[in-house]
Amino acid sequence: MRLVDGSRVAIVGGGPAGSLTAIQLLRLAREAGLRLQVIVFEAADFERSGPPGCNKCAGILSSRLVDRLQELGLRLPQEVIQSEVNAYVLHAGGRALPVVRSDAGRRIITVFRGRGPRAASLPLPESFDGWLLAEARSRGAEVRSARVRSVIRGTRPAVVTVGETVEADLVVVATGVNSRSPLDPAWGYRPPPTETMAQDEAEMPGELDPDVVHVYFGHPPGLLFGAIIPKGRYVSVSLLGRALAPDAVSDFLDGHGLAALFPGGRTRACGCWPRVAVGPAGGYFADRLLVVGDAAVTRLYKDGIGAAAVTAEAGSRTAIERGVSWADFNRGYAPVCRAIAADGRYGRLCFALWDRTRRLPWLLRGWERAIRAERDLPDEARLHIRILWGMFTGDMSYRRIFWLSVSPGALRGLVRGVLRARRA
Known about the structure:
By secondary structure, the chain is α+β, with helices and mostly antiparallel strands. It has 3 domains: 169 residues, FAD/NAD(P)-binding domain; 116 residues, D-Amino Acid Oxidase, Chain A, domain 2 (2-Layer Sandwich), CATH 3.30.9.10; 64 residues, no CATH class. It is built from 11 helices and 20 strands. The strands form 4 sheets. Strands 5, 6, 13, 14, 15, 16, 17 and 18 form an 8-stranded mixed β-sheet that branches. Strand 5 and strand 6 form a beta hairpin. Helix 7 packs across helix 10.
């Protein structure tokens, strides 16, 4: 099973995973001397504000993703960039711990997936997803505005919409986890486990810096972490947790003394309850079928769009260079997905260590002292700053963060920080 001249690829979903798959397939096909027909099916209108054009995401792009886009010749237009993050402030145990970007080349960017909040005023912010889908179209992909009802298994799988049935030599599913999978049960696909976010958007309070993300822990019950993310004229309030109550955002703002920052304490421009994948799916490839992005596997809690880019590249390369059978994807694509899932296990260890740290005031003060002691050191010696920056930006693998956290240099710095804190 191989793609040949004139082969048709149907991509279900025009978000970052689908658009990047189209771009990668067309690029690699050209390099291999193949002409492909690539059709992207997308029902959302990324030119609209609010839910009709939104893909329910906090909208932070890691520097690793920005670098990948540039390698593909994709340079983010200035109008798509809402804010460039220069610092994170971690709020824990009644203390504020600032972590400032030390490498100007490591850009952390915030974007809107659609055209901004439901109540956005003119001019509307530009859509990241809309820009990326337009880039796929400019490179040769055909974009059809249609909702896919099902993907039927067969000698050549078929994509079924309300108005047509399209057979393809390869179907790529890039629907994420916030919509029903279109795959017929005969494929044996099992969606990934998920956790729930609560996300609101509001006008940017004048008291907040436009290039600083604030991260909070501990309240309300079930919260893993919450963040206030600057996005130009707006901010996103994003909470990730387990069994969050319906009024979780209001409770979060009240509990951390933030309600007064927003008009009336409750006014919001938009809000949603998206799901995020926290583990791999099952049956995410088969003969002539490939699932990419969140619907297959993603990075734990951070840099989901970056993980979508990784799966899009690995899946596309396998399809062009190896073939489109189950065996081809098992050899060329599955190892990349398993590596992402394995890194998530390191991520759980990292978050467990951080949860323990923030619950012990003497240890938290030690971390703060260690970070202060590193501020005048060269970047390679700023171990604790790099650890926290990597944790909360998604700019470093969890595996690397974990081993850096338990390295002799980091442990020595932490012990010195704890001793300084006790003497103070």
